[in-house]
Structures are given as C-alpha cells and as structure tokens.
C-alpha cells in the first residue's frame, strides 16, 4: 500500500476508509492512549506519595469527582459493556486530569519541578487528542505535537522511579 491519505478527500471507497483507520490507529491513537494513562499513573503515584492512598477524596474537586461518579453509574447501568478501570480516575478525560494536576500543583512541584510546563503541554494536545479520539485525521503539526508529548511523558515516567517515586497503577 502506498502513502495513506485522509479518506474524506476522495470518493468513498471502503479500502481507503480502512487504510485511514489503520493508519491513524497505528501512528497516533495508541500514543494518545499512552499519554492519558501515563498521566493517570503519574497523578496517582504523586498524590499517593504526597497525601496517601485516599488522595481522591482530598485532592479532587467535588465537581470532578461527581462527573466521574456519574460516568461510572452510566457504565453500571449497562454491565454487559466493558468497564473503565477500577479507580474513578479512569472516568475522567484529559482536561480533567490536567485540572487535578493544576489544583494540586504544589504537591507535584517537589517531584516534578517543571509541572507548570507539563500542564501547558497537556493543554496543547487537548484539541489534537479530541481530533484523534473522535476518529478524525490530525494535521502533521498535531501528530508531531502528540509524538513529542508522548516521548517526553514516557521519559518522565521512566525517570520518576529513578528519582525515588514508586509508580502505582490506580
């Protein structure tokens, strides 16, 4: 197969649609998946170390906690579908994760001194993440932005245990 291009720029063909989906999945979507889950693990790990195992009840805005509880309740109404992870952090989206970091940045600073830069970078991929998450075709710039944040967040996740923070999956 040659260069894959956005199927929406051509007359409809199932093979072109399939190629677009496979390309976006293989090149970009998996990195968005990793970014969001790196953040969940990092948030859980930092706040567990700084507050304790029940950090959710202390560190998360009641409005966000309610959103997560409402989403979890929606899943509970349809138990035949896949469920999000056991922790309510899996019921939140990228901007919500950034909000938890922002609200608790004083607890992140001793462990991640450039936390303000991280919050800005996470915000920069919010729209590209939505493009990919809603099965649209990102621009080359958006793809590169996702690539860089993925690579840098992976490096951060690998560096934190070396610095003494135990990474804990929520």
In short:
This protein is mainly alpha-helical. It is 66% helix and 0% strand. It is built from 8 helices and no strands.
Describe the structure.
- The structure is a single chain.
- The mean pLDDT is 95.
- The protein is an all-alpha fold.
- The protein has a domain at 27-60 and 92-162.
- The chain has helices spanning 14-50, 55-59, 62-76, 94-103, 105-108, 115-124, 126-133, 140-162.
Shape: globular
Span from first to last CA? 40 Å
Mean pLDDT: 95
- Annotation, overall tally of beta strands: 0
Low-confidence stretches are none
List keywords for this structure.
single chain, 170 residues, mainly alpha, 8 helices, 0% strand
Secondary-structure topology with pairs:
Blueprint (H helix, E strand, L loop, with lengths): L13 H37 L4 H5 L2 H15 L17 H10 L1 H4 L6 H10 L1 H8 L6 H23 L8
